[in-house]
Amino acid sequence: MVGVSDGQTSAEPPPVTARTRVGRPLLSLALASMMDDVHAHSGGVYLLAADGPVLEMAVMAGLPRAFAVPWERVGLSAPIPVADAVRERRLVWVPGEQEMAAHYPRIAVVLPYPYALAAVPVATESTVYGAVFVTWPGAHPPELSDRERDHLTAACDRLAVRLERAVQESVPLHTESDLLAAPALAGAADTLGTVEAARMAARLPYGLCSLDLEGRITFANPAATELIGVPSADLLGCTLWAAAPWLNDPGYEDRYRAALISQHTTSFVAMRPPGEWLSFRLYPSTTGLSVRVSRARSVAEMGSRPGPGDTAPRLVTISQVLSLAGALAEAAGVQDVVQLVADEIAPAVGSQALAILGSGAGRLHVLGHRGYEDPHVVECFDGLPLAERTPGTQVLTSGVPGFFESREQLERLYPEWHATPDGFAAWAYLPLIASGRPVGTCVLAYDKPHPFPADERAVLTSLGGLISQALERAMLYDAKHRLAHGLQEALLPHSLPALPGIEAAARYLPATQGMEIGGDFYDLVPTQGLAAAVIGDVQGHNVTAAGLMGQIRTAVRAYTTVGQAPEEVMRSTNRLLIDLGSDLFASCLYLRLDRERGRAVMARAGHPPPLLRRPDGRVRVLDLAGGPLLGIDSAATYPTAEVDLAPGSVLVLYTDGLIESPGVDIEDALADLGRCLAESGDRPLDELADDVVRHSATTRERIDDVALLLLRVRERPPPR
After folding, report:
1. 300 C-beta neighbours (distance < 10 Å), count
2. Could you tell me the CA-to-CA distances from 541 to 473, 523, 546 in Å, in that order?
3. Which pTM value belongs to this model?
4. pLDDT digit string, tens, across residues 598-628
């Protein structure tokens, strides 16, 4: 089925129209013709889905569909070549495994093999239908030839025209099968070729097997069945790794995938119980693989040489990649990324320690590390100029990974390294490149010499791509976090003034979600013979709310300083907020303290009621009359109320973040707060403030900011 979209080249996903159907195996024939024209060995066609900006694989050729399971259905925003080709309306060329690891790490970490890929949009001038990708063996030249480029674009243009005609004619699309080699033939070996060919294979002293593209055995000579130790009847039609339990290892299956995708000869050794080593050599073609099986005498003589199953059989599985990608996407700050790499990635690749390095102002910075007995051996590099010749600086500035299989190899290239031994014996330095620029280096250390074969290097480089994307987001988050805290600290009082006869303490806790910045505020303003206190809450948890909060706090101070009465301060602030043209509202509680007369005059604008703890320990909720939220009605009035404050009384002003939480009744929260004040109200005010915020369940997982201002009336000194 075909989804169509207009041909806009913006980053927005192309809109999808109703699906239509096309007749004949149009896609299969077009794909086969394209692959033949450019001598590609595999490929596939993606079409836009009707249920959203999604690409669905319609047909695949040359390789089993199982190789592409993670990408059978992908969003247009996904970081894969076919999605880029559709979004950007251009041919995407990936010449090899290093480029795949750098630009598309989620693909490279699952398929870390040498192959080249081209993705081409299938589109007319006005409509995008999908994309085609084709692949070549790793021996393909690093540049796509003009002939190949012209053949691919012309073929995709022709396919787009045919799909457009099919849409117009509403021709049904019949189900098309993937294009693979002919299915395996059952029966004796002589059905697979001439009788003489079967006799020749039977006379050979080593084993021969033929595998189809799905990995199933379609032929095995007698030597192969003897070496593998499984009768021919049990071999035919089964995959090699399923036919013999001792071959059921992901590492051996990985060699089969590597051979098919790269079209390069691959090999491995495996031990057939109880102790016989066998050598398997795989010769791929576009129709399947020929496998030669023989005794690995050199291995047997050396004793034990580990096969793929004795080390890490496969560095990461597809499910692990998806899990790691999801976890890295959720990492908030840089330390979250460091911890995730330490907990998930380092163990998966057999590393015993790691360090994440970054740069700033021309110097190296250690962002985090784990696993080093002496942290100084890593931290001593913090602040090192990038011009210094060290593995960390070289990889960070060049973007080229460095793999050092032994300390001797490292010291040969970096002679000064012996001066700072870290206790490890092998290292992988992975460049972390995001948005086309290096953002850091990931150092993985191993406690024993460690060879880095080509496929492992590809996997590690690809993992570096995943880490770099997470690190870039985390560094941006940390920068915003620092900005938010700096702005919040600048807008709130650095300290509370000392007032005669009044003791004060305040606390501010940002929300634990979002930017950790908000519109909650408090202030204490000394005036001649009096004092004013204010607490308020502007809607939102962002820079806009914080900026508006700063304006309101400044306005309240100004109106207080010129001597306005509490009700006038509230009316003036309300009019100011409306004049500013903001769409945000604010709650506010303002009070004027008269210490000599032992009273407070309060005005309230939609703010939670304050609490008063009397000297005898009783707590009362001051449910005062008030007006609407600030910023709603320019004609609003704010009536005042007087409250007596006996010496030893404690006034508790707070924002709704202290008492409001999902699933918690506000009345219950207020009663709980009252009990806390009754029990702890005689403690020093700073300790009481800490008790109040600790006591509130909402302060542990805060969906809102919390501001708290406590005022205690001191005992009057005795007259002299």
Report:
1. 16
2. 20, 19, 8
3. 0.53
4. 889 999 999 999 999 999 999 999 988 889 9
